[in-house]
Amino acid sequence: MQLMVKVFALLQILLVALFPAAHALRRDEFPPEFVFGASTSAYQVEGAANEDGRKPSIWDTFAHATYVNENVGDGDVACDHYHKYKEDVQLMADMGLEAYRFSISWSRLIPGIQPHVTLLHFDLPQTLEDEYEGWLSRRVVEDFTAYADVCFREFGDRVKHWTTVNEANAYAIFGYDVGISPPRRCSPSSLFNCSKGNSSTEPYLAAHHILLAHASAARMYRKKYQAMQHGIIGLNIISFGYLPKTNSTEDVRAAQRARDFNIGWFMDPITFGDYPDTMRKNAGSRLPSFTKKESNLIRNSIDFLGVNFYFSFYVKNNPGNLQNEDRDFIADIAMETERVRREDTAPDEVPITPDIFLGVLHTIKKAYGNIPIYIHENGQQTPHNSSLNDRSRVKFLQGYIGSLVDALRSGLNIKGYFVWSFMDAFELVGGFEISYGLYYIDMNDPNLRRQPKLSAEWYSNFLKGKPMDSKIKEIEKNVLSHDTQLHNAT
Ligand code: FCB
Fold first, then answer.
1. Parent domain of 65
2. Cα three-residue angle 400-103-211, rounded to 5 degrees
3. Is 11 among the domain residues?
4. Count of domains in the chain?
5. In terms of pTM, does the model score above 0.90?
6. How do residues 252-278 score in pLDDT, each as one tens digit?
7. Mind listing the pLDDT tens digit for each residue in 86-109?
8. SS3 for 300?
9. Crossing angle of helices 265-272/354-368, nearest 10°?
10. CATH assignment of the domain containing 184
11. Does residue 420's CB lie within 6 angstroms of at least one atom of ligand 1?
12. Ligand 1, from 72, 375, 377: best to mutate by most atoms within 8 Å of Cβ?
């Protein structure tokens, strides 16, 4: 362990020496076609929950119940983006954002900045959950494809980047294994008190149907629209850094297994037509099988992969987890994890680990080839009413965007980077108490005024090629007045 710590310390020193100093980061170090944007998702920012015929999604049901995130609020009004979208797009244009990643609210159905659109960002219509248990039923494949068809037909003339499902893996794990998010299903043995569910089987089944629904929608896009609309379509997953806790063969294998269960779960079927062997070995028949036809449908069903990145873990082998008969998805990985922390990051913030992030991207390239990748989400978490002077978010962005310069130089096929999130949103874990936004919104302000944080100014200066140092210093001098404004507003 001591040795690992030393190796990491050394690595950090090397990285600091190798990476261009943060203040020297320039937009023109990236190819012109590389895209820089920021992200949101429908339920997290739109509000207008009962307007224009919108029906509830599983997130409305979840947020209105009191079981998990009591007191954290809901997305009924959120940032009122539904009404303020013009003002917000103006802010994006002023900031110099080149792209905006958002999602369409399936249960709502209905120039200048490229829209990167996600079809489903966790908010399945409640009616499909009630009617046939949503992702647990194969019927969702047909319904999702029909929904996607409407979106391609109506918006495909303007949308050139489609993502079918956001964080397909997190959706299955948090909704069906741990039960921390909707549809809040888990076994009675889970820490969360779910009224129904089976953590041994349902995460696998839900993910299986997500893969089939994704592939079916992608096939429809390619057959019916792509030649005419000239867009591309992909799937999004959340990636984690997994580092073996020791260099023993067992821990190294356990870390690889963790990657298989994390990324391989979706990328093995998409690349090779079947789930990873490690998953089959540990989950057995609980992991559904593909017919030849399904496997052909899924193989090569993405034009790009959307990758989100926040946290990393040290992995220790733990075969004991496999002894339990009705073990859940996480136990099937047969590991113990410990969160990677960094001394320069506060405990309630996301550790800044661009070195590990680069490792994840190289691992994906090695395992699945040099497919185009969009970093769809990456961002720093801070307590909501902290400060407009969000230095840790600036440091975070400098670190990660800086690492992308290196990623491109070493031949990784990264096509774009989106900060999560454009503005403070209703966070899926933590509600309005934590925030990731470049813009601050006081949720008690009736006008929900958007106020730029230091990070918004930093990103804007970076995008516009404005000199950074003097600006940052100038802004830092104003920290006091920024903070005073914030306190007056709250
Ligand atoms: C991701 C979600 C996104 C957001 C961030 C913080 O897992 O995709 O909606 O809440 O976490």
1. 34-489
2. 85
3. no
4. 1
5. no
6. 999 999 999 999 999 999 999 999 999
7. 999 999 999 999 999 999 888 776
8. coil
9. 30
10. 3.20.20.80
11. yes
12. 377
